[in-house]
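Contributing new records

If you add data, match the layout below exactly. Sequence lines come first and carry their own label; structure lines follow with theirs. Keep one chain per record. Anything else will be rejected by the validation script.
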Amino acid sequence: MSSPCVILGGGVAGLAAARLVARHFPRVIVLERDTRAPVDDPEDAFTGWTRPGVPQFRHSHAFLARLRLVLLGHMPDVLDRLRAHGVREIQLADTAPPGMSFTPQAADEDVVLLACRRATFEWALRESVLDLPNVEIREGIHVTGLVGAARDDERPHISGVRLADATIVPAGLVIDA
């Protein structure tokens, strides 16, 4: 069996990476420092999860239109989950200041912002990753370094991740998210 892809960080970037790389690796391991209890909805994630290393975890966010397009193209289930839990989709015309003449164009249909809490977005993405049979999320894990060796005086080849308890997690690819 080949070594897994190991992703350092289980926030938005790490979870998105896990979703996408899981298509190409038979096994993906996400290593996350914080511990998040299983919750049934984003409100419980907002009130129950403690994410001290995540800036603005409890703030509302307006995610740019490009993110919505990526979700539509690559993770429509995440967008569906967000919609089911009240994410607001803001059309371009809705962002025009009062009194400003604005004529919507046909091409504006893709310029839609997503408005929700960051906790809600992370919850929806995490739930989608938990549905993948080849992805494992390990929480409460402290990474202390990478394991590797130089080959023929060239750049080092990374072969794993060292944890605080000195355990080595072998890796075919490491993504620092």
